[in-house]
Amino acid sequence: MTFRLTVLGTATPYPRPGNPCSGYLLRTEHTAVWVDAGPGTLAELQRHHRPDLLDAVWISHTHADHAADLLPYYYALLFAGEHPHRPIPLYGPPGLAARLETFLAGADHNPAAAAFDVHELHDGHHAEVGDITLASHAVDHGLPAFGLRATHADRVIAYSGDTGPCPALDTLADGADLLLCEADGAGPHHCTPEDAAAAGRRAKRLLLTHIGHTLTNAEATERARAAVARPGETVVIK
């Protein structure tokens, strides 16, 4: 019944030495899902799981610091000796497939579909991936963006994606064993540490991520009274 979250990276808006951009790995004994594919996270993913054996990839929104490593992942799957049994299920916001096609222009015959089986998210979208249920909720980020509530048995890991405070963030957090919440702190479509703390009071545990360049980790921790996710750490929900 163990449910694990491994932090692949948390940086924004670009990767830093020792810290890729946003990316996380959800795992049970039988299932592995890569959540957000920010620059540098594909390399870190390989420390924990074979990329060609993932059960799915879930992308919160199309900003590059959450999605850019889908491009090298495409080449890894098709041209580097990896052996996926089928195109990898890819869950993401509307327009993600078209964006991939644009970046891959010049490759042969509908290239993105050769690597990915794309499913567009919508508010309330549910997907059963192995023994994990992925429930997506539209959040407030100024473009189509989603938070995730992932359930295994009766364990729940919630992820804000990028969002400002909104009712969907509260829904994601309600009763979750772990809320992984951004605390970028800049702009109208992000959370401050205090916003993250308010949402976190609805969950059993709060872990901050995606700390903006105007904040230090120590400042975010002090303001939210919560720890900051560390690249490479694994949180186990039993």
From TrEMBL:
Residue stretches making up the Metallo-beta-lactamase domain: 33-211
Q: Which GO terms describe its molecular function?
A: 3'-tRNA processing endoribonuclease activity
Q: Which Pfam families match?
A: Lactamase_B_2 (PF12706)
- List the SUPFAM superfamilies hit by this protein, alphabetically: Metallo-hydrolase/oxidoreductase
Q: Which InterPro entries match?
A: Metallo-B-lactamas, RibonucZ/Hydroxyglut_hydro
Source organism, top-level taxon: Bacteria
- UniProt name for this protein: Ribonuclease BN (tRNA processing enzyme)
